[in-house]
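Sat 14:20. Reprocessing the chain from the morning session after the first attempt stalled halfway. Input below, unchanged.
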Amino acid sequence: MIDILDFKSSIKKKEINNSYIFVGQDEYTMKENIKIIMNKCLDKEFKDLNYIKFDGGDLEEFDPVYNACETMPFMSEKKIVLVYRANFLSDNKSDSKTTKLYNSINKYIDKLPSHCVFIMYLVMNNKRDKIGSKIKKLDKKCTVVKVDNIKGAKLEQKIQKMFSSRGRNIERVPLKSFVHNMKDNNLNIIENEVEKICSYTLEKDIEKKHINIMYDNSVNDDDIFDLINLISEKKAKDAVGLLNQLTFKGQKITHILAMMEKQFRNLYLVKVGVESRKTKEQLAHELRIHPYGCSILIRQSKKFTLRQIERAMNLCLEADRKIKTTTANPNTEVEILIINSTYS
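Finished this time. Tokens:
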């Protein structure tokens, strides 16, 4: 078993092995390092023909993986077969199907053809999770890469690149403030937060005031759930009363508005998903939210039509535009938004 630094060192030496398992909490870093293998092994022109991936959560049989590995690459020396989110590698998954799938891979991995680079990755749920016996057994046959969350200056550099790739500048002080407000250093989650703050701000430069507005942590999800719930129940007076309570406690109205807009956006995605017969687990995974929070969203979405949610989202955007570009009173604009959303 090696760490991510050992892996990068071996890649620099052009030492690419036949099979890899990436394991850890940071899915973003796993994906980034799998891209490194792809760039080393595959020609850009034929990448789509020589890169095959499977969702480990949906995979029930080994045959599709076997066929993908055995098929010769097209106009290339190598092909890559990836099984992402390979939950069957966890000791917590031990039903008959996952056990059979794991055993098949365990037997086959010794027989991988030289033209195939076979990669799997397992995302751990939290810091307390440990690498189990299944992966330890495979460690004797393939390269297991432990992906720990990066910290300090390296984390800051990575985040700065995320902003730069979106055409945004962020200086040292607001960058440190942004990092400080992250609950953990999971890059997959952090990238979502970078996207969120870039969507929120109109300016090219990300300043500390933007960080303060977005991450005033005293307003929590429960407050916003309650606020949206009152709107769904047509209780405009109570909803405005709750808004006034939050602002009286010193919460920034712009932050409340941003969280309301996010909540309505998630409600829309959940309602569309439910109508498409997606499960709670699928929606929680796609939206990267906790299953409990997803359950609340599903319940709330039943109290709105899609047209009502769309209108509420547009009202949020209009309120945000007025607050940023006119001398309109922010509190009044959000109160009007609540009233109009209630009686839509």
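The two ends are 58 Å apart (CA to CA).
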